[in-house]
Each structure stands twice: as C-alpha cells, then as structure tokens.
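Usage

Read records sequentially. Each one opens with the input sequence:
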Amino acid sequence: MVVRTVVRYPARVLKGLAGPVGAIGDRERRLAADLVETMYASPGCVGLAAPQLGVASRAFALDVSVMKRPPEGNHGLVVLFDPEVLLAEGSDLRREGCMSVPDYTCDVRRATSVVVRGTTPEGTVRVVEAQGFEARAFQHELDHLDGLLILDRVASARTDVFRRKRYAGKGEHLR
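and closes with the structure output:
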C-alpha cells in the first residue's frame, strides 16, 4: 500500500473516460489498496477514484463512516471495480468538495438514493443500496470515472461555485 499524490484539475486524466478493469489481479488489488490508503491519509476525504491517482481505470474507494457524524446505515469501506448505477431516485441540491478541485466547493444536484453494482477486489459482485450523503458520495466517485468534476455539475458558475473558506470570505462566489 502506498499513499499517492492526488491529481488536481486541469490534469487530462480527470477529464477522460476511465477504461474498464475486467479481471481482478494483483495489479488491480494494489490499486485498490493505494486508493484506500490515500483516501484515509487525506483529511476530510470520504472517497477517491482511480483517475484521481492518475490511473484511467474504472475503480474507486469510498467510506463515509470516517466522518465526524457518519450517516446511519452506511456501508463502511466500499471498493468497487467497473461500478455502474442500477437505479437512482430523488433529487437534492447540496454543497460538495473534491480532492482534485481543492480550492472550491460547488452546489451539485444529485439523486438521494442509488443502487450501485460493481466487482470487489476479491472478484465478487457487490450490490450496494445507498441513501443520502452516502448516495451522493457514490455518484461523485462515479462521475470521476466518466471524466466529470463537480465544476461540470453546477447549474451556474456564478451562483453555485464557491472559494473554500480558507481562501475567501463566507459564501463568496467564484467570479
């Protein structure tokens, strides 16, 4: 396991479509371990996708149980290869941050409930039904696999993109 540097926008790998993983071998398990190790070593991080480590593969790690107030019923650590959304329902607009866009947060509309299927590092198929913040986190990581960032999900850069508090006053919009 290695803690890797998180790739930042505008790196090209963040805007491309990640390729399928297919069969799970030693290389993929090392990637999974690096995703988990880097995620846990990054303050405030609850999810990390392979493109954020510079790897254009459809894989991510997610764990919302590490939050100060973790959502009830969360699934703990989830690592999936070749994930896909089977069902998405509801709609909610909330603020999100991203390790690859560290200076900004954005108001992003996402489904409130999702069902996601993927392959674990052990090679088994796993289906996860997630609600609320955990559902949002799954969608955020899935977006990374499709070359989408939170900046791509805002309705208006003028009203929905904010500088992080350490750089600007409360509620200051990107202009």
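Summary fields computed downstream for this record:
- DSSP finds three helices and eight strands in the chain.
- The domain at 12-163 is CATH 3.90.45.10 (Peptide Deformylase).
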